[in-house]
Amino acid sequence: MGTRKRTRIDRGRLLAGLAAAVLASGGLVAAGPAGTAGATGPSAQRPAPAAGAAAVPKHALTGYWQNFNNGATVQKLKDVDDAYDIIAVAFAEATGQPGAVTFTLDPALGYGSAADFKADIKAKQAAGKSVVLSVGGEKGSVAVGDDASARNFADSINGLMDEYGFNGVDIDLENGLNSTYMTQALKAVHAKHPDVVVTMAPQTIDMLSPQNEYFKTALAIKDFLTVVNTQFYNSGSMNGCDGKVYAQGSVDFLTALACTQLEGGLDPSQVGLGVPASPRAAGGGYVSPSVVNAALDCLTAGTNCGSFKPSRTYPGLRGAMAWSTNWDAANGGAFASQVGGHVHQLP
């Protein structure tokens, strides 16, 4: 995810090396597009998620709203462009209790009170939007690694959902994730809020194989998972689902990397393309709205592809995500208008 006070450096060399290690250890890689799971693969006949999906459009635009000022346009929640269907409030913070999180409004946003913020949440919800609380970010230090911390995480998220009226939770933990206990925690949230909207924003390296902890978590909660918007940036070069290496900042990177998730067990409705809303929003990997739209077309209809073309199409693909609504506003709202408009026109 983009950072609060600075853009994150491009860790391409390190991550590309890790990607190669995943490939060598038997991660999900096919000999070529025709050698992937294909039309009879694991996700071919899977129904759409039962919970959370009802509150989110079939094709949705997700945007992260910054609860801090890092040089992007400062917004109140009500200022977020109407094109965004899911708004992830960034970020919840760790407390002194392992696994537990809290949320505090940054005074820089200009809210007179928490009640004003809660009113903005209700107004967005009245307009058909989902507002979720994002946990983590680049500097986030939330750790859920045992029964107690999983319980603390779930209890605190449930409490914040009740207090502020959030529709759900977004998992953006960039410093490690334990699938066993995060799954346990999210199932506890779902048990108390059956209509919870659960989103994730793993880094690219976290979704290269179903054996990775993030991927395992997504698969473990796929009966109520809403969408995984992988951060297809700050990544360097990575292996696509055809085993070839693709450089970030290209339509092939978006499509070949998303293919791994689509053929690895997630329903197309649970896959979104996460990108920076402007060149300033990340250390590397920015693509223009037209490239995002081309990737959406390639995956949903098999058109406008680059050199990589998936062996089948995924018309149910959920959509796209921007880091962030603030950087989008600073960039003239190009992502909301161009990508948002395209997402909402998908069949």
UniProtKB/TrEMBL annotation:
Pfam families: Glyco_hydro_18. Residues 59-347 form the GH18 domain. Its EC number is 3.2.1.14. SMART domains: Glyco_18. Keywords: Glycosidase, Hydrolase, Signal. Residues 1-30 form the signal peptide. Transmembrane segments: none annotated. One of its GO terms (biological process) is carbohydrate metabolic process. It comes from the Bacteria. It is an enzyme of class 3 (hydrolase). The keyword Cell membrane does not apply. GO terms for molecular function: chitin binding; endochitinase activity. InterPro entries: Chitinase_II/V-like_cat, GH, Glyco_hydro18_cat, Glyco_hydro_18_chit_AS, Glycosyl_Hydrlase18_Chitinase, TAT_signal. Belongs to the glycosyl hydrolase 18 family. This is chitinase. It comes from Streptomyces noursei (Streptomyces albulus).
